[in-house]
Design a protein that fits this description.
The chain is of the alpha/beta class. The protein has one domain: Alpha-Beta Barrel (TIM Barrel), CATH 3.20.20.100. It is 40% helix and 14% strand. It has an 8-stranded parallel β-barrel with strand order 3-4-5-6-7-8-9-10, surrounded by 5 helices. A two-stranded antiparallel sheet has the order 1-2. Helix 1 packs across helix 2, helix 4 packs across helix 5 and helix 10 packs across helix 11.
């Protein structure tokens, strides 16, 4: 395993981070693993040097935090791990049960710590940017949480660059702790974050952790998983000709190298110097091993060109564009131009 400092902080994390959205309760989603199914994958990741674990209270409506941390308590010392969880979407339908108000943030961290049976969270993250709550209210609450010792650091996820800039400005003005990590979606089929967010994070000394390196499975060239057959977001995000052509290029490179398309797609992500850590949401230990091999996979300039040559700009993928994205293909003519 390889390790890096997360941004300008002193915190060192493994270059592979165990993603845990697939762990918790099948009552939430049909593709979720229960505790007994999750344990071998968690053990395997830790045995191979992973010290970075990604959670969210939203996953399985809180059951994900319980399941993963039950396993962690059995197999590893808490202080060896860097554990993050996220706040925002919530676990119930209460009127104040979501968002980034002070009330919800304060209630949520206590609920997360209780489910996790832990005294602190290493990185407490905003799951998105809440446009309905003053940013000063949100960041003051997070600062107070760090001062209380319930979290060591704070982080953010999936937002526009100007929103992150707004957060940093508010923190600078008030002397509050600033995020050390931005978690975002990046893969060979979705590269829009390369335009502004990645350079901005580098300029501001913020670490970057990447999720969905396989484009929700599209880049493995296998669309028959339970998740992809039951999760409409895959179709919304990647059901376009350009994404499928990129997947074919990834497969061609994999054939040339004698490895799997997944390994090539993950190696492409890890080759980006801006990326601190890559999330691996493995369903099997073999899938996790693909990411391990990707750490040492070097792509040639010709291979990178083949992977990237089909890419064209597309609408952003984030919480504000859900259900509204325009596929990157020509739209039909309208009105007098039909």
């Amino acid at each position: 395993m390889k390790y890096v400092r997360l941004g300008n902080s002193g915190l060192k994390v493994s270059r592979l981070c165990l993603g845990t959205m697939n762990m918790g309760s099948k009552e939430w989603k049909p593709w979720i693993f229960d505790e007994s199914q999750s344990e071998p994958i968690i053990r395997h990741a830790i045995d191979n040097g992973v010290n970075f674990i990604d959670l969210a209270d939203f996953y399985s409506a809180g059951e994900g935090e319980k399941v993963v941390c039950n396993v962690l308590r059995r197999i590893v010392d808490r202080d060896r791990m860097v554990i993050t969880t996220k706040v925002g979407y919530g676990t119930n339908n209460d009127i104040n049960g979501s968002g980034h108000s002070r009330k919800h943030i304060m209630d949520s961290i206590d609920a997360s710590l209780k489910r996790m049976q832990m005294d602190y969270i290493d990185i407490y993250m905003l799951h998105y940017f809440d446009t309905n709550t003053p940013v000063e209210e949100t960041m003051k609450a997070l600062n107070d949480i760090v001062l209380s010792g319930k979290a060591r650091y704070i982080g953010v996820s999936t937002m526009n660059t100007w929103q992150l800039a707004k957060i940093l400005n508010v923190c600078d003005k008030n002397g509050w702790v600033k995020p050390i990590n931005m978690q975002l979606q990046l893969n060979a089929a979705y590269r829009e974050e390369e335009r502004e967010m990645l350079p901005f994070c580098m300029d501001q000394g913020i670490g970057v952790s990447v999720f969905s390196p396989l484009a929700r499975g599209i880049l493995t060239n296998d669309l028959q998983s339970t998740r992809n057959l039951t999760d409409s977001f895959t179709t919304e995000m990647y059901n376009d000709k350009t994404s499928l052509e990129i997947a074919k290029s990834v497969a061609r490179v994999a054939d040339n190298k004698g490895c799997s398309p997944a390994q090539v797609a993950q190696a492409w992500v890890l080759s980006k110097h801006e990326v601190s850590s890559m999330l691996v949401g493995a369903d099997t230990t073999a899938q996790f091993d693909s990411a391990l091999m990707a750490l040492d996979t070097v792509l040639t300039s010709d291979e990178i060109y083949e992977i990237e040559r089909n890419y064209t700009p597309c609408d952003l993928i984030n919480d504000y564009t859900s259900g509204k994205r325009i596929q990157r293909s020509a739209r039909p003519s309208k009105g007098i131009f039909i």
